[in-house]
Amino acid sequence: MKFPRSKRKIVTEATQSFTFTRRAMVVGGLQGGFGLLLAGRMAWISVAENEKYKLLSESNRVNLTLIPPRRGWIIDRNGRPLANNRTDFRVDLIPERVKDAEGTIRSLAALLALESDEIERIKEELDKSPGFRPVQVADKLTYDQYAAVSVRLPDLPGVAPSQGFSRYYPAGASVGHLLGYVGAASAKEYEERKDPLLITPGFKVGKDGLERSFDRELTGKPGAKRVEVTARGKIVRELTTRPDMPGNTIRLTIDAGLQEYAGRRLATQSGSVVILDCRNGDVLAMASMPSFDPNSFSDGISHLEWEMLSKDDHVPLRNKTLQGLYPPGSTVKPMVALALLEAGVQPSETVTCAGAIRVGNTLFHCHKRRGHGAVNMRTAIAQSCDIYFYQMAQRIGMDRIASMARRVGMGQKFPLPFPSQSYGTVPDPAWKLKKYGQQWQVYDTVNATIGQGYMLINPLQMAVMAARLATGRQLMPNFIHGADRPEAEPVGVNEGHLVVIRDAMSAVVNGGGTGGAARMNIPGVMIAGKTGTAQVRRISMSERAGGVRGNASLPFKLRDHALFQGFVPFDNPRYAVGCIIEHGGHINRVEDAPMICSDTLSFLFDPKKATEKLETLEKGWGGTPAERLARQTAAFRLSNAIKKGEVPAPEASNAAHATTPPMSSVPGTAPEDDNDAPPPPGSNPASAP
Q: What is the C-alpha separation between 581 and 596, in angstroms, rounded?
């Protein structure tokens, strides 16, 4: 079989030329297309994206830094600063830029003479920081310290010294709970707002109190600074600077002098005092003590100071004015008496007080063991007779009393610029059925009529109650000076009934009643008020039979609360006051609620005289709140160092002085006051079967 022979392709010069030409055209086309692509891309970069790459190029040469805006001032009603700003030098760490954290902190500690607890705080915050948030190392530095850090910046990557403004509170602890404090923004706040200003070193936001509520208004607009830098970030020269715009000024109704006086006059006690203007409800002072120094919090509080405040049994971190709730005790008796008058009870009707009364199978006692004898409404309020109110309250029922309590401000939620408030409780049959699923009992009425049982109030509500009893109008507390407010509605009671109540409250102080310690030493000025004692423990029948233990013999947490509410002048009310002393127990007359209220109100009439008295008293208390806090911190630091073995323990004779803050040495005895029984729910109201 023969296979066909393949035809041999003949290659000629012409075919070779054609093939080469075709390949050259393909390659040339590809090269041309690639060239056009490159030319187009170059044109796009140089023309269309010129601005973008110009900025990138500029950013390699120039750094743009935000300048934190100065925070707006908070001033009092007279223009006096409550919170302002002062120039300072500071040093921060930018976590994501730090290369050797241990070495950097060690160097800064040597340059700035940092305490050991400060070093621990910096390390902990650096570990917890998300990277973009600056960690404060120190502020309020001297120029020499600032310069010492600045010249070493090439060797300290991540260190950011700056000159700016820090928040300053002239009154210190006296405004701690009123104004709150500022601090660096948290990671959560940054994630929510995505504002680069929040991660700018030195910028702080409001964290509590009015600083937090008015943070937007107080925060201004940031400035900017352009500086030329080398490849390593070293500053060559400053190019341009755009100044910041400060935040708005907030003007409060607070009287700065009165606010500071009130904080100092609370002395070594744990409590609160509030003063209102009876004309319009303006809050003139709202002090809660002991407190914290907002300057320390704004600067970055140390672990040691935080631990000291957290362990203090006087709870300096709680705003007792708005967050503390207490049984109002006998301070509600004028309100209950007003409800009695509105229900038709005549003020001249008398009740015989023999010292105790049986309600069901329970024996309820008066604070005066042998009783007051025959008492009418005025005497019952002046002498704080419990038996009178036990009997009369059963006649009208709890619903009428609860209605009156709400009309004078108890349990009311006020529209205040504070992030956290507690509103108290005004119990009635419907409330108990809803909350506990139980029917209201007669003993519940007896409990509530003397401000015990389920009834709770805060110091601000107590001051509002006093203002409404004084004026007959439903005044609302206000903190913003000049704010537009509607005219206060009347409480809705007979004016003649209010006159009876005011006269009885005057007798409490000026007519031989339980509040004689509140009598004012201002010629022509008389104060009307009502004292109160709120029990916090169970008094057993065996203890009552053998004699109730005095508060002075009890641990701090088991002592009664001491309360006072009132207004001044009695015949033309201008100011109202409410004061609660936690576990005060009426032990020390000078540091008791009635005299604290009297002295604080006297500042409004004679500041010089009131201040002279206060300065004399403070010598016995160990100085001003700032001086006492400084000694307490030093003692706590020493005690902590001894526990760690960093310093040897002092001799036994000096140990107590080194570790115990000074106590009050001002002599005084408690006035004979009402000792309200029964105690709160669940604590067995001193009963007998």
A: 10
| Cα–Cα distance, 572 to 209 (Å, whole number) | 33
* DSSP per residue, 520-540: --STT---EEEEEEE--S---
The helix (run of H) or strand (run of E) holding residue 160 is strand 159-168
* Cα-based distances in Å from 103 to 70, 107, 135, 150, 161: 33, 6, 16, 17, 17
CA distance linking residue 561 with residue 584, whole number of Å: 5
- Rounded CA-CA distance 614/91 in Å is 40
Token pair in block for residue 581: 């002393």
| Percentages of the chain per state (helix, strand, coil), in multiples of 5 | 45, 20, 40
Q: Is 371 exposed, middle or buried (0-12, 13-18, 19+ CB in 10 A)?
A: middle
pTM above 0.85, yes or no: no
The pLDDT tens digits for 466-488 are: 999 999 999 999 999 988 888 99
Which amino acid type is present at position 451? G
| Residue of 338, 534, 363, 335 lying closest to 452 (CA atoms) | 534
Tell how many helices (H) and how many strands (E) occur in the chain.
25, 19
Contact indicator for 298, 269 with CB cutoff of 8 Å:
no
Upstream peptide bond of 678 is cis (omega within 30 degrees of 0): yes
Please report where in the chains the tokens 């060797």 appear, as a residue. 155
Angstrom distance (rounded) from CA 631 to CA 290: 14
Contact 258, 284 (CB under 8 A): yes
- pLDDT tens-place string over residues 531-560: 999 988 777 666 666 667 788 888 888 899
Q: How far apart are alpha carbons 302 and 607 in whole angstroms?
A: 36
Distance CA 532, CA 349 (A): 23
Determine how many CB atoms are found less than 10 A away from the CB of residue 53: 11
Contact 461, 558 (CB under 8 A): no
Beta bridge partners of 66: 224
